[in-house]
Task: structure prediction
Amino acid sequence: MQVTLDIPDEVAAQAKVQGVPVEDYVQRLLKQAACQTSEMARRKMTDAEIQAWLDELTQFSEKIPAMPGETFSREMIYQDHD
Result:
């Protein structure tokens, strides 16, 4: 598959430093990223990582308004229009 990209100057400079064509350097970066992503998906999270993830999810939960005690009705959802 072929994709056209605008490569940042920093990436092109890194390719030049390593002495490889920009195309090869970008392909290597993409392969590395794909491998890291699949490794992360297979790896089990530690208890500390899970807790940190949950803490991040609930970071602003105190700002969520409380649910009304009554059952939701169509009128409640669409009270500002028909």
Q: What stands out?
A: Residues 22-42 form the longest helix (21 residues). The radius of gyration is 24 Å.
